[in-house]
Specification:
single chain; alpha/beta; 3-stranded antiparallel sheet; 12 strands; 54% helix; flat; binds arginine
């Protein structure tokens, strides 16, 4: 926490939020007046009192303590004197007291945020393009949860469409149970790719018929579909486990097929549906957009129709305060149209729908392309990164215990961090070597810093010295580190507000750097004074706690040793 927030939270001003007060606090031009000052002119109108009177009353009521040693009214200003070691101690004791809860809050109590993320397509490759939505969504899910919101993770499955008719047709012609059983999603994908290459006119017709059979509830067609679906879910489930992401709902496109009609009816009643070349559309021309197609000329629904029904369903089911769609920026227009249509339907909650768009991820050593079949599967990227992590670790520290477990944490962490470190809208080129650089702006660097802190704390325990918040006066490096640690709760809040887990990732790197300056600049266990030793141990423990919490929010674990 910074001093401004510290003061604002303790000022008994009714009717004005602590945030507003913190914002109003300034640094007085003359330092002899104080370290910080609150100009009370701003509040004169609301409080119906003269600024000088307000300053006087607040000065009398302000609870001075070890952090803020005085609060004095001067000409409509309320001037504060700050005790720098006081905040250091306050920050440290808060972190040690709150432990794994440090950075959390009840800001979102009673509020619900739906987060639509990862949203995998059945029987299609789960490729590197799905990395960002999966880890960004996963991080937002945890961040909102940490801030007290009720977060609902939704995997809006791509489980509806004519492609499933094609798949059944391909399977009937070229597939067999054993091969698919054995090859899983890869075998299914091959069948699909083969269909798009080799299907005859006849097979296309057949595929349409199979799709119709799925829709009409035909038993065999549905059994095949469910089988393909379960193979896909089993496959992605393993990846979700490795990336530490979870979902509360897997209601996908198919789930909404019988929930579209009431929404379509409402569109009609409101006179929003018009016919255009046989299709039923909502005209968005006045808003500079192409029409939103609700029903095709053959009466079939579209991706957007299902999304429309999904939005209404989510509002009714979860009564969300916000509904986020973590989807690539390629779908910008789709979401702009969707939100506009809901707004035109007179739903005030249209303003609570947010498209959390992100950029492309590609690999340094390989382009990705779909359809042709030479897709970069996400699973392969993760496995390769874990293998490389194992090699790097072997080189650094061959005696390490639980090698496989550490390599998994480091390798998976590097993949996640690679996708989360930059502002989400930027395109990313992922490089294994850069992501696994111990001295870079990487998760490995942060994890290594945590392991370093752990080892200091272990050594201290062996020596019988325990961390303690003593009266020691923090030196330059310690103050810098403390200031960083104090900012964690605000960082988490800002990350939620801007839908930017990168804030947390950057915080971790920045704080790790400050810890390492402290570690190399100050002696911890070799400090001469016992009070300083204990204080530095407390600071080490607080850093470990904060970094562990930060990495946890991103879905990254901390190895015991590395
Ligand atoms: N399955 C879709 C795709 O891969 C993403 C779905 C995103 N969510 C949504 N409600 N439209 O493009």
């Amino acid at each position: 926490m910074d001093y401004k927030t510290y003061i604002a939270e303790r000022l008994p001003v009714g009717g004005i939020s602590a945030e507003e007060i913190a914002e109003a606090i300034t640094v007085p031009p003359d330092p002899t007046l104080g370290d910080l000052a609150l100009p009370c002119f701003k509040f004169a109108k609301i409080m119906r009192k003269a600024p000088a009177a307000i300053a006087g009353e607040l000065a009398a009521a302000y609870p001075t303590d070890g952090v803020v040693s005085s609060a004095v009214a001067v000409n409509g200003y309320l001037n504060f004197k700050i005790n720098r070691t006081g905040l250091a101690r306050e920050t440290l004791s808060r972190i040690l007291r709150e432990g794994e809860k440090y950075g959390s809050s009840d800001l979102g109590a009673g509020k619900t945020v739906c987060i639509d993320y990862s949203s995998v397509n059945i029987a299609k490759p789960f490729h590197i393009g799905h990395l960002s939505t999966t880890v960004l969504g996963g991080a937002l899910y945890r961040i909102f949860g940490f801030l007290g919101y009720h977060a609902v993770g939704i995997n809006h499955l791509g489980d509806y469409g004519t492609q499933f008719g094609k798949l059944i047709s391909a399977y009937k012609h070229w597939g067999n149970r054993e091969d698919v059983e054995k090859g899983g999603i890869h075998a299914i994908n091959e069948l699909y790719v083969r269909f798009s290459r080799e299907a005859t006119e006849e097979m296309e017709k057949e595929a349409r018929e199979y799709f119709r059979l799925i829709e009409s509830g035909d038993r065999e067609a549905n059994e095949l579909f469910e089988w393909f679906k379960s193979l896909t879910m089993e496959y992605v489930g393993k990846i979700y486990d490795r990336l530490h992401v979870t979902f509360d709902s897997y209601a996908g496109e198919r789930f909404y097929i019988d929930k579209m009609q009431p929404v379509i009816d409402e569109l009609k009643e409101r006179g929003l549906l018009i016919e255009s070349r046989g299709a039923q559309v909502v005209d968005l021309e006045p808003y500079g957009m192409s029409p939103f197609i609700v029903l095709r000329s053959d009466g079939a629904s579209l991706y957007g129709t299902r999304d429309l029904a999904a939005a209404f369903y989510r509002k009714k089911t979860y009564d969300f305060d916000k509904c986020l769609y973590v989807v690539a920026y390629q779908q910008n227009l789709h979401f702009k149209q969707l939100f506009k249509v809901i707004e035109l339907m007179g739903k005030d909650w249209a303003k609570d729908l947010v498209h959390v768009a992100y950029g492309m991820v590609s690999l340094e050593d390989g382009a990705m392309s779909t359809r042709q079949g030479n897709v970069v599967w996400l699973e392969d990227v993760i496995s390769r990164c874990v293998e490389k992590a194992a090699a790097v670790l072997e080189e650094k520290n061959p005696d390490i215990e639980n090698k496989a477990e550490v390599a998994e944490k480091v390798g998976v962490g590097a993949v996640i961090f690679g996708a989360l470190y930059n502002s989400k809208i930027k395109d990313i080129v992922f490089s294994y070597d850069k992501a696994l650089n111990f001295d870079g702006e990487t998760s490995v660097y942060v994890q290594y810093t945590c392991a370093r802190a752990k080892s200091v704390l272990t050594k201290a325990r062996e020596l019988g010295i325990s961390p303690d918040i003593t009266d020691a006066e923090p030196c330059e490096q310690e103050s810098e580190l403390l200031k960083a640690l104090a900012e964690f709760p605000e960082t988490v809040k800002a990350a939620a507000e801007k839908y930017e887990p990168s804030y947390v990732a950057r915080f971790c790197v920045d704080t790790a750097q400050k810890f390492n300056k402290f570690y190399f600049g100050c002696k911890i266990l070799q400090a001469e004074d016992d009070g300083i030793k204990k204080f530095r141990l407390a600071l080490t423990e607080a850093t470990l706690t904060t970094l562990t919490n930060g990495l946890m929010l991103l879905g990254i674990g901390v190895p015991e040793k590395m």
